[in-house]
Amino acid sequence: MIFSKKRETPAFIPDITQSRVTSVIGPGINWVGDLRGKGGVRIEGTITGEIAISGLVVVGDSGKVECQQLKADTVIVAGCVKGDVTCQKLEIRSSGKVWGDVVTTSFSSEDGAFLRGQMRMEETIAPVEVDERE
User: Fold this and answer.
1) For residue 17, pLDDT beyond 70
2) What pTM was computed for the model?
């Protein structure tokens, strides 16, 4: 058969620890300063500062982020982001708003999603480097 060729190993094996939320910045929390690390973070409060996460960043419905640069492997926006975004995968939900330039390899949005800025699609993006000592 022509179409029965099977691959021995999957082409992409996701890292479970980096594709799920392990930390939450809850509603009512106002964080001023940088946020760096590995894993997944859900933001329901307000963050003012740079974000560099080797993993998942979810900006929830009540979440607000103001930064020069948000870097992560995967970014899901249901709240507001004011700043440039660099990631492997960006998803803007129907309630999500992004003001800033985006560099990504994969983009999806729902009806009602808002993006004001330039978008550049790349074939590959370097993974987020996080210093282990931080």
Assistant:
1) no
2) 0.83
